[in-house]
From TrEMBL:
<feature type="transmembrane region" description="Helical">
    <location>
        <begin position="402"/>
        <end position="422"/>
    </location>
</feature>
<feature type="transmembrane region" description="Helical">
    <location>
        <begin position="146"/>
        <end position="164"/>
    </location>
</feature>
<keyword id="KW-1133">Transmembrane helix</keyword>
<feature type="transmembrane region" description="Helical">
    <location>
        <begin position="171"/>
        <end position="192"/>
    </location>
</feature>
<protein>
    <recommendedName>
        <fullName>Transmembrane protein</fullName>
    </recommendedName>
</protein>
<feature type="transmembrane region" description="Helical">
    <location>
        <begin position="89"/>
        <end position="110"/>
    </location>
</feature>
<keyword id="KW-0472">Membrane</keyword>
<feature type="transmembrane region" description="Helical">
    <location>
        <begin position="21"/>
        <end position="42"/>
    </location>
</feature>
<feature type="transmembrane region" description="Helical">
    <location>
        <begin position="204"/>
        <end position="237"/>
    </location>
</feature>
<keyword id="KW-0812">Transmembrane</keyword>
<feature type="transmembrane region" description="Helical">
    <location>
        <begin position="244"/>
        <end position="265"/>
    </location>
</feature>
<feature type="transmembrane region" description="Helical">
    <location>
        <begin position="122"/>
        <end position="140"/>
    </location>
</feature>
<feature type="transmembrane region" description="Helical">
    <location>
        <begin position="434"/>
        <end position="455"/>
    </location>
</feature>
Length: 500
């Protein structure tokens, strides 16, 4: 038994010298996600209607096909326009960068006329692996112990979940958002733990990734709040007193990027959001007829007939949601201010909607689209169960109450406030920088549901809560890693013989 123990210890020691925890996590997610993205049958996500603007803007189009239920199966191939695209800047977002890069690689290695969705997956996959490496290294630094490999495995379990990586083979903005928030957290934790000799590369990484994240979608404008709060922590880095102006400028740039992307939405998108916030928010979760309530708000009570309707609908409705009459007599009267005022006088209804949002927070895997291509032999909208243990467990046990989200926020901020207080007294900065990171993540968990309900009601609610659940998952990962490293409150790690 002693010999076996010695052999095992010797093997583990050799393994640790050759494979760091960061490399261990990167290799595992490369294999796990590579199988789902590139090994037939190809998996990804069907189109729920969000692809239209991305295709239009980037010179792509859907190839003719007999099957028109786009959400049932993953579409592998798209056509590439050969001539002038009049909609080139129909909607400008940072997502265009990844799409253009994927198109460049597609034309270089595959075809100049047909686009394969796997090149979209390849672009996301490459940046994703880099983010996993940086984040894992920042979470385990400066150790290379058994606990470090446990943390690396948790990174794989949580961030390698297929509910995340399925987005890579699609045109959903969530794929890029997921990769960027990994880089943002990796940059902050690397700065907090002095992983690298110079701070500036990670500071640049934080601000560039933050700006790209905010501008990846109009819905991400609200993330400005969290990212600016995270940036405040950088002011406390040593030797940064003379550079606080630069940090302030970076935070201002994030804010302006958020404002810019919010107001860049075209009129049709704004009208669609207004209508859905009204029909699938104001008119829902109300125990009585909403006609009188909206009438008192200055809106004709007849519009209660569009309750639960989408802006774009093929079915017959008494009042066409996207019609000119609706635009004139409804959409011009309602806006975010009107909706906020309505909910302020109907708090019970608003709380019910937030509880609905709370039940959707753990639903990371999109349920309204298929994960397989049509020739795979699977039924329409079939869902993969490959490496979904974490997301399935979270969905099964997470309470569907908004009050629970508030309790998590209070508990997490309270726990990390102790480290903030102790490090502030000792003139250390790790606990301070980390505290602002947690505050930013936890506020996102709480305010994103509010923002989602006000701006779009229950329409595609689970998808619009993507950054809320991702913020929760990153906080869980950070908390467990601090427990394993014994750095939750005692933020200065003890020296160890097996340091990197």
């Amino acid at each position: 038994m002693n010999n076996l123990s010695k052999i095992l210890k010797s093997w583990c020691s050799k393994f640790a010298k050759r494979v760091s925890p960061a490399m261990f996590a990167t290799i595992l997610v490369a294999i796990i996600s590579g199988i789902i993205l590139f090994i037939p049958p190809i998996k990804g996500l069907g189109d729920n209607g969000d692809f239209y603007n991305v295709l239009l803007t980037n010179g792509l189009y859907r190839l003719p096909m007999h099957y028109n239920q786009l959400s049932d199966y993953v579409i592998n191939k798209f056509g590439i326009l050969h001539y002038y695209n009049e909609n080139h800047f129909y909607t400008f977002t940072s997502q265009m960068i990844s799409v253009k890069l994927a198109m460049f690689l597609n034309k270089l290695f595959y075809s100049r006329t047909v686009f394969d969705i796997r090149f979209m997956g390849l672009v996301h996959y490459g940046f994703y692996l880099g983010g996993i490496y940086l984040l894992t290294k920042s979470l385990v630094h400066p150790f290379r112990k058994v606990g470090s490999y446990v943390i690396a495995f948790l990174v794989v379990l949580i961030l390698g979940d297929s509910a995340y990586t399925l987005f890579f083979n699609s045109f959903y903005a969530e794929a890029g958002m997921f990769v960027l928030i990994i880089y943002i957290m990796a940059a902050i934790m690397s700065l907090a733990r002095d992983v690298y000799a110079k701070n500036w590369p990670m500071v640049w990484l934080f601000f560039v990734a933050s700006i790209l994240l905010v501008t990846s979608s109009q819905a991400n404008a609200s993330l400005t709040i969290s990212l600016v709060i995270m940036a405040i922590g950088l002011v406390f880095l040593p030797g940064f007193k003379a550079r606080r102006l630069a940090v302030a400028f970076g935070a201002l740039t994030i804010f302006l990027a958020g404002v810019g992307i919010y107001f860049s939405a075209n009129e049709e998108a704004v009208n669609a959001n207004k209508l859905q916030a009204f029909s699938q928010g104001v008119l829902l979760e109300n125990t009585k007829d909403p006609t009188e309530d909206i009438d008192r708000g200055g809106v004709d009570g007849q519009y209660s007939l569009i309750r639960g309707k989408n802006y774009y609908t093929d079915s017959y409705t008494a009042i066409k949601p996207s019609g000119a009459y609706t635009k004139k007599h409804l959409l011009k009267k309602i806006n975010v201010g009107w909706t906020v005022h309505y909910y302020a006088t109907h708090l019970k209804q608003f709380n019910n909607l937030l509880d609905v949002a709370a039940t959707d927070i753990p639903n990371l895997q999109m349920k309204n689209v298929g994960d397989f291509s049509r020739n795979s032999g699977h039924k329409p909208r079939a869902q993969t169960r490959y490496f979904t243990l974490y997301s399935a467990t979270l969905g099964a046990f997470y309470p569907g109450k908004y009050a629970f989200d508030l309790l998590i926020m209070i508990g997490a901020i309270g726990a990390y406030a102790v480290g903030f207080y102790l490090d502030n007294k000792r003139n250390h900065y790790y606990g301070i920088v980390r505290f602002f990171l947690v505050v930013g993540l936890m506020l996102a968990l709480v305010y994103i549901p509010i923002y989602a309900v006000i701006t779009g009601g229950e329409f595609n609610l689970a998808q619009r809560l993507f950054m809320a659940v991702t913020s929760l998952n990153l906080t869980i990962l950070l908390f467990v890693s601090d427990i394993i490293n014994h750095t939750l409150w005692h933020t200065t790690p003890e020296e160890d013989d097996d340091e990197e």
